[in-house]
From TrEMBL:
Organism, as annotated: Metabacillus rhizosphaerae
Domain NADH-rubredoxin oxidoreductase C-terminal: 317-384
Record InterPro entries: BFD-like_2Fe2S-bd_dom, BFD-like_2Fe2S-bd_dom_sf, FAD/NAD-bd_sf, FAD/NAD-binding_dom, FAD/NAD-linked_Rdtase_dimer_sf, NasD-like, NiRdtase/SiRdtase_haem-b_fer, Nit/Sulf_reduc_fer-like_dom_sf
Key word Transport present: no
Membership in a protein family: Belongs to the nitrite and sulfite reductase 4Fe-4S domain family.
Protein name: Nitrite reductase large subunit NirB
Domain BFD-like [2Fe-2S]-binding intervals: 416-465, 481-530
């Protein structure tokens, strides 16, 4: 049988996915020709955010490489735009004059970014964020310019802004609405998001209307309707998209906002389909890949003559791809007359959860700070699950434990793990059991799960863990530490050890970094690994540290700092309190606050005053900013309390004195309580001690922050000396094997409590670990004292660094 001629206009995510689905049905039905205006093979547009953020490289986001087109006998014309569809001739014409006939045609021309028609919008340095070319413009600009303005505080604008921050730019987001991401979040979540992003260094101008982009040839800044202005030498417009319909419209195809399609993705012109962001189904043009991939599947079945269930529209869910921020939104998330909402708001930890109910059905959800329940809620929304028999508040509570593996264990087979590609837990389990998949990459190849935004990778790994048990080696799932290198943490640490590397630049040169300068993700990590491997020889590279660590104080939203002096075990005395009071008065410090870690925080210290404040306090740094030991909280214990069986303050002070200043992959908090009443909350700390008759129980991996986790019992010991010895070995093992920025709670989940116990059970190993710990501790010097002693550092730090 002669093959029919199929032409696809648009070599993007939706169109090529439709071709993939067609090839799955049959490779013999069509002779396929694809036109793409961009000069690249089909790539993952979603990951451009990750390219900008330094997590991956353009060359690694290709979805279908040139060979794929060849292997499937597809004729591909890249860098060539179709300018005309001739329905009578059933042919398309390109800008190069090429005429290609079709029996079936798919229009998948995507969207074009909306560019505000402002005076000056055509100046150099003004760009959209849609494709590789735009991404390159931003990457280049960041090398020569400092000030970036992003217009639009939606998903795209915020992901762009995070990328530009990572590239070392000073970033302001100009947003027209009073709260961020108002199309996905309600006011509370929008404000929480703003707060979190401000902490990351983003600045915001809300309810701001840009009137003009000024400058000579290149942009120099923005003018707003209220007469104010903002300097900027890069402007990114991220104010939404418009379906790209011009070609279809000119060809007489019915269009509205998008190209109008029916439930089988057919336009009103015979043999012409449309799919993706350019298509409008039931009045809706979609702007996320999940619905577009659903459409692609229906289109493929229909065009191949198979019986297909009609496309009936999609419920949407979104997640923001900014590290350190968990935001999830799905369905109809706003309260309304016919809708009631259920909310949980933990203001202290910045966690907000809301579900919206219409009668007995969940129709929408917003999660901020903890989005683990997102998939489950999304499944309920999609299924229009009836919750009349459920205690409503329990819907917002995590099912099972916090651990990922137990969360997927509670999911039913039809629950979706990969939202972008609509892959269920059952499909992944089937791929493992029937197709022998044993890694996340194999699952990706088999099912497409994790092939788009990549956000579901941890859940896919959890399903592997759950299904394969001990056969699944999570640590063998190699993951590069960032987009500047293909190397994992283990490979970098091994490289440092084997090749005797001593500087960040040397690591990057010798281990073949792809970017000369590295990025804000790998530089601090390599800095840590070098110090961990060679504690006595390595000189910390201050420039590679985050601003708080460079300044040894926490920057606040108004540009002032907060300062926390060390108070061992939360115990203080009249002299220290007097010095603190004097400092507060002398430097007119506006806020003095007792912290949850049992010490005193001085807020609102001016940058210039920092060295003098530290000098006058004459106390060690509390490291409230550092990836190091923060606090050792203690209860009063046997000294004063009638229930106390141990000297909790004594052990707490010894621990804090011994381990202060220790550099760790992430912050470490401890607590010591002298009896199981645990007044110091020992069960929720990285390491917690609970006094029992005749000794201590040591709990590890606890966390009281965003991801609440109760600690696991590591050991029972009899004496304070044993407690110190186990702590030293445990912490050193964490230092040596955790990824940079991995809290002990996540680390213990990854490596397993039993494994850590088996290491620490070995007395020789314990001794060796403690010896290496002692070496690391031997170089500790209080950072405040060091700065005060060095006029040069004081000058450098306070005249060149920081936001003033
Ligand atoms: C930075 C960024 C991050 C994103 N993140 C996410 C995310 O996390 N999750 C999510 O679901 N979605 C995300 N999206 C949206 C997602 O990328 C799009 O929904 C998806 O790419 C749309 O696919 P499409 O094929 O319809 O359009 P496109 O991928 O835009 O493809 C259309 C292609 O057609 C070409 N073309 C147009 N006209 C012609 C013509 N006449 N002739 C030849 N070729 C033509 C275009 O050049 C383009 O290459 C993101 C988008 C961006 C820009
Ligand atoms: N993580 C993700 O899922 C993700 C990431 C990036 C992009 N995308 C998709 O890409 C597309 C484009 O994203 P987007 O964020 O540009 O679109 P959007 O429509 O979601 O957001 C645009 C934002 O710009 C604001 N805005 C509009 N006019 C403005 C003006 N004059 N000044 C300041 N702000 C203004 C709007 O209030 C809105 O919040 C969307 O379809 C989006 O879903 C998704
Ligand atoms: S933990 Fe026990 S010993 Fe410590 S203060 Fe509380 S009740 Fe007293
Ligand atoms: S959820 Fe986006 S790739 Fe799986």
């Amino acid at each position: 049988m002669e093959k029919k001629k199929l032409v696809l206009i648009g070599n993007g995510m939706a169109g090529v996915r439709a071709i993939e689905e067609i090839l799955k049905v049959s490779k013999d039905l069509f002779d396929i020709t694809i036109f793409g205006s961009e000069p690249h093979p089909n790539y993952n547009r979603i990951l451009l955010s990750k390219v900008l953020q330094g997590d991956t490289k353009v060359k690694d986001i290709t979805l279908n490489d040139w060979e794929w087109y060849e292997e499937n006998n597809i004729t591909l014309f890249t860098g060539e735009t179709v300018t005309k569809i001739n329905p009578e001739m059933m042919a398309v014409v390109s800008d190069k004059g090429r005429v290609v006939p079709y029996d079936e045609l798919i229009i998948a021309t995507g969207s074009v970014p909306f560019i505000l028609p402002l005076p000056g919008a055509d100046k150099q340095g003004v760009t959209a964020f849609r494709d590789i070319k735009d991404t390159d413009i931003m990457l280049e600009a960041s090398k020569n310019y400092k000030k970036a303005a992003v217009i639009g505080g939606g998903l795209l604008g915020l992901e762009a802004a995070r990328g530009l921050l990572n590239l070392g730019m000073d970033v302001s987001v100009i947003h027209i609405a009073p709260t961020l991401m108002e199309r996905q979040l309600d006011e509370t979540a929008g404000r929480l998001l703003q707060k979190e992003l401000e902490k990351q260094g983003m600045k915001f101008l809300l309810e701001a209307q840009t009137q003009e982009i000024y400058g000579t040839d290149r942009v120099e800044g923005l003018k707003f309707k209220d007469g104010t202005q903002l300097e900027a030498d890069l402007v990114v417009m991220a104010v939404g998209i418009k379906p790209n319909i011009e070609l279809a419209k000119e060809s007489g195809i019915a269009v509205n906002r998008g190209i109008i399609v029916n439930d089988f993705l057919q336009t009103d012109l015979p043999h012409v389909y449309s799919v993706g962001e350019c298509a409008e189904h039931n009045g809706i043009p979609y702007g996320l890949v999940a619905p577009l991939y659903e459409q692609a599947k229906v289109l493929a079945s229909h065009i191949c003559g198979q019986e297909a269930a009609p496309y009936q529209g999609s419920v949407l869910s979104t997640q923001l791809k900014v590290s350190g921020v968990e935001v999830f939104s799905a369905g109809d998330f706003m309260d309304g007359e016919d809708k009631k909402s259920l909310k949980v708001f933990d203001e202290q930890d910045g966690i907000y959860k809301k579900i919206v109910l219409k009668g007995n059905k969940i129709v929408g959800a917003v999660l901020f700070g903890d989005s683990k329940e997102g998939n489950r809620l999304f499944s309920m929304i999609k299924k229009e699950a009836d919750i009349s028999d459920t205690e409503k508040i329990t819907i917002l509570q995590p099912i099972g434990e916090e651990a990922g593996a137990s969360l997927v264990a509670t999911m039913s087979a039809d629950e979706i793990i990969c939202g972008c590609n609509g892959v269920s837990k059952g499909a992944i389990v089937q791929a493992i059991q029937e197709k022998g998949c044993t890694s996340v990459d194999a699952i990706k190849a088999c099912t497409s799960a994790s092939r788009s935004c990549g956000g579901c990778k941890p859940l896919v790994a959890d399903v592997l863990q759950l299904t394969l048990g001990s056969e699944f080696d999570a640590s063998a799932q190699k993951e590069a530490i960032c987009g500047c290198t293909t190397l994992s943490r283990e490979e970098i640490v091994d490289g440092i050890k084997e090749k005797g590397l001593t500087h960040i630049r040397e690591v990057m040169n010798v281990l073949g970094w792809e970017s000369e300068e590295g990025c804000s993700k790998c530089r601090p990590a390599v800095n840590y690994y070098l110090g961990m491997v060679n504690p006595t020889k390595y000189e910390d590279e201050r420039e590679s540290r985050f601003v708080n660590e460079r300044m040894h104080a926490n920057i606040q939203k108004d540009g002032t700092y907060s300062v926390v002096p060390r108070m061992y075990g939360g115990v203080t005395n009249a002299n220290e309190l007097r010095r603190i009071a004097d400092v507060v008065e002398k430097y007119e410090i506006p806020l003095v606050k007792v912290t949850g870690g049992q010490r005193i925080d001085l807020f609102g210290v001016k940058k210039d005053d920092l060295p003098k404040v530290w000098q006058d306090l004459d106390m060690n740094s509390g490291y409230a900013y550092g990836k190091s030991l923060r606090t050792v909280k203690t209860c009063v214990g046997e000294t004063f309390c009638r229930f106390g069986t141990q000297d909790s303050m004594g052990l707490g002070i010894d621990l804090e004195k011994k381990f202060e200043g220790l550099q760790t992959p992430h912050k470490v908090k401890m607590a010591v309580s002298a009896c199981p009443r645990s007044c110091a909350e020992s069960g929720f700390k990285d390491i917690g001690f609970i006094g029992i008759d005749g000794g201590w129980e040591i709990y590890v991996g606890g966390n009281g922050g965003t991801h609440v986790r109760g600690g696991d019992l590591l050991y029972k010991v009899k004496t304070d000396q044993e407690a110190m010895e186990i702590t030293g070995a445990y912490l050193q093992y964490y230092r040596e094997t955790a990824n940079y920025l991995e809290r002990t709670s996540a680390w213990i989940e990854r490596v397993g409590l039993a494994h850590v116990q088996s290491v620490l059970d070995d007395k020789n190993k314990r001794t060796e670990l403690n010896a290496r710990m002692d070496e690391a501790l031997s170089v500790y010097k209080d950072p405040w004292k060091e700065i005060i002693e060095s006029k040069k550092t004081t000058k450098e730090l306070f005249e060149t660094v920081g936001i003033s």
